[in-house]
Amino acid sequence: MMGKKVVVAVRKSDGGIETRQLGTVQVGKVAKVPFLRGILSLFYSLSFGIKALDLSAKISSEEEMKRGETFLSILTSVALAVGLFIVLPAYLTRWLGFRSSEFVFSIVDGFIRLGIFLLYVWIISLFKDVKRVFQYHGAEHKVVHTFEHGEELTVENAKKYSTLHPRCGTNFVMIFLMVAILVHSLFGIFGPLNMFQRVFLRIVVLPVVASLSYELLKLFDRYPKILFLAAPGLLLQRLTTAEPDDSQLEVAIVALRHALDLKEQTSSSRTLEPETESGVEASVEFLG
User: How confident is the model at residue 134, as a pLDDT?
Assistant: First the structure.
């Protein structure tokens, strides 16, 4: 979780919970500039996300991963993402015969990409290990809901909240896929494109699509009345989150406490108070 600090909490093999700080998010003027802040947020999420995955694997397995293994894993993931979600949809669209209009090509290509993504998420959700990751994802959301409603961070309080959250990274991905369809449809102004140009342009405009998507995500969070526009992302979360057990909620609570520097007061009520003046405005961001 990202708050005042970026932290990862991991359940160890002996049952204990180990927490590590990955760093802090440097909030400067750039972080407040519309569109630029989206690219910065994406950079932080990817950078800290990779570090968190690497560190959690080391702690939970109690085995040291070599740098070469981590690099190879990242390289394979990037190649798989580009191949599945950029190259494959473009070639499938051409194979289906949509070549005359770049606008129509981009629309069909975008919906094929969306279909492949949904199929991919559904398939991996069937794996036991991934299902466990999705349970932790649900635990994260429940605990953040608890904090945002001003309740004490306990397992019992967190249980009653939803595993869905409008500020989730899953929402960002869904918005990203829809915005990409619109942005790619503008490629027609350059005239007919060959396959290399199409794939190249789709990779080049990734930061543009990401920044637009981030602004829409912020907009949905700021204005609840238009939250219905984020419905596709909330529906997708039904695949990427699952009901957690008590032990998983405990890990999420520890992560949030450390991320926002919450101090526990020793009283009968065990109330938790944020050390930041802005409370939730300190912002909880999701790495998941």
Answer: 95
